[in-house]
Amino acid sequence: MIILSSCSDKWLDLLPSNSMVLSDAMTTVSDARSAINGVYYEMQRDSYYGGRMTWYADIRGDDMRTWGNSSTRSGDLYRYDEYPLNVSSALWQQPYTVIRQANNIIALIDLIEVTPAQEAERNYIKGEALMARALAHFDICRVYGFPYLKDNGASLGACIIREPIPADTKPERSTVAECYEQLIIPDLLAAIPMLSDNKIASQGRFNKWAAKLLLSRVYLYKGDNANALREAEECIAGAEAAGYALYTYDNYLEQWQTKFSTESFFEIVNIPGQTTAGTGSIANSIGTWCAANSANALHELGLTMQFYDMLTSDPDDARLNLLRRGVINDYPSLFPGFILKYTNGGSNPAEANVTMYRLSEAYLNAAEAAAKLNQNDKAVTYLDVIVGRANPAKNVTGTVTLEIVLNERRKELFGEGHRSFDLLRNGMTIYRSDDEASRMFLPEHAKEINWNSFRSVLPIPTQEIETNPNVKPNPWDN
Question: Up-side HSE of residue 253: CA atoms within 13 Å toward CB?
Fold first, then answer.
């Protein structure tokens, strides 16, 4: 793992100077298992899915905000005040770390000699590496590339890296369309048959249902609604046959406080007492950032008043159980409420797992794709399951519009990393307002954001362009 994780000050240290060292480092299935654990370790960091990538889309939307205007680590993202010289490199560098390690595994794993009993595990590990590589490229495109439907994927996205390459290589960015068509979708299609479909055996690991859900999401972003619907429907049917089940109205909070819950396909696993190397630490995970009352709480992220008012308008909605009124040290906090999705029922929020893929999203993906395809009966069927679960007194009738689906996604998936992506990928505007009660004031440029704004994507950090001049910057007004 140490060899596979080696790095330098080069743009992308993908291969040690002596490639035989790397080959010797992974000669057994056990070695490969250690290597894929290293990939999950990098995904766990607070600079990626342990923190920043999970809250990124919500804090740039209309559901969540930071507590301070300038002093917090999330303040610039919340105010859309990122500039090439001040923007963090985390969401550029950390996905490439995952890509580097996944490529090392993919390049070597077929060279491992296995017994017939080991072949399925070897294939499973390769499938995990393929999914990790696809996800990392997808995330770079989402953060740094304009939405696919804005220009049919013509804007620049990630640098496609599909094999170990010398550390001094200076790759160029590919378009968003090229990333989708040449790597993201093919990798996921290749990974799905290799991954486990067993609920118990795949805990803490990517599985078939997580990959199909991600592929459904990718197709939605691409505007390929027929394939998005097919993948979502297959995910629902297959996962439920494998033992997954939606949370119920009565156990909604209980399931969120349970690791590996009934509908959770994949979770970032945080182990009590564990910290990661370097700058990453579960002490800085999304659990601590969202926590209200705990010795480990940072209470940096909370709900906006506009979202709090919307969700609390239905006092019988089960999802209200995931809100905590914003009170710290017996006085009202700067937030109307905190998110309880990252507690897992423990006393230390830093130890909470981070749920990345769950069954509810598959139903919402199916409903959205069906609505866009004018298959209203299907849209009603899939959306009604989520609406009726949240409040059994409610049901879905009539024509299901995109706005109706996105509103339900907002209520079901808040705090899980979707909101601003959902609006922007559909060509909609993010409307945000000042919060007078807590003296939170937004600059004018952060109150209305759509895909025509250069601020809707992050600028490539200046240091990354200086290191690799072949990386073209995003449009930016000085």
Answer: 12
Question: Does residue 229 sit within a domain?
Answer: no
SS3 state at 278: coil
SS3 per residue for 102-153 = HHHHHHHHHHCCCCHHHHHHHHHHHHHHHHHHHHHHHHHHHHHCCCHHHHCC
Establish if 53 belongs to a structural domain. Answer: yes
User: Token pair 């696919």 is at which residue?
Assistant: 148
In this predicted structure, what is the pLDDT of residue 300?
Answer: 79
Q: Which residues make Cβ contacts (< 8 Å) with residue 173, sequence separation at least 6?
A: 156, 157, 158, 159, 471, 472
What is the per-residue pLDDT across 71-109, written as a single tens digit (0 to 9) for each?
567 888 999 998 998 899 999 999 999 999 999 999 999
Return the structure tokens found at 46: 């607070």
Within 10 angstroms of residue 198's Cβ, the number of other Cβ atoms is 12
CA nearest to 233, candidates 256, 257, 213: 213
**Looking at the 3D structure of the chain, how many domains does it have?**
1
Position 57 in a domain: yes
What is the per-residue burial (b if ≥16 Cβ within 10 Å, else e) of 90-125?
A: bbbbbbbbbbbbbbbbbbbbeebebeeeeeeebbbb
Distance of CA 144 to the CA centre of its chain: 14
Note down the domain range covering 50: 1-194+454-464
CA distance 109 to 122: 7
Are 128 and 39 in contact by the 8 Å Cβ rule? The answer is yes
**CA angle, 102 as apex, 97 and 107 as ends, to 5°?**
130
* Alpha-carbon span 79 to 455, nearest angstrom: 10
The answer to whether the beta carbons of residues 358 and 259 sit under 8 Å apart is no
pTM for this one? 0.93
Tell me the two tokens of residue 30.
Answer: 């056990």
CB 364 within 8 A of CB 395: no
Which segment of 329-333, 359-363, 395-399 scores lowest on mean pLDDT? 329-333
Tell whether 26 is covered by a domain: yes
For residue 46, what is the domain's CATH number?
A: 1.25.40.390
Residue 296, pLDDT score: 57
Buried b (16+ CB within 10 A) or exposed e, 51-68: bbbbbbbbbbbbbbbbbe
